[in-house]
Amino acid sequence: MSPLTKDHLAELREELEAQLERLMRSIEASEAALEPVELDQSRVGRLSRMDELQNQSLTRNLHEREEIRLTLVRNALARMEEGTYGLCAACESEIPYERLLVFPEAVECGGCA
Length: 113
Fold this sequence. Notes:
Blueprint: H1 6-33, H2 46-82, H3 97-102
Helix pairs in contact: 1-2
């Protein structure tokens, strides 16, 4: 059973749902930027193509991090439904509310992380 009060849970759920929405919008927007880079030499110079490839690589890395974070947020919301949110997955002690305010998707307490 979660050690958090109903008010704490409501506040944290609201934050997680807001993060979920932001991440989904960001992932959707970044997917367009991951399209293959056009290498038409008549349109774009060599340096411009290199810049575009580098930007695409950065976007891909951001996209991957956001996908991971999206999974963590969804898992946190699932733990809320199960009643295990706020308990450390490693030692089963309570995760302090203050830690959850900063990292609402946290799975472990500060000592185990």
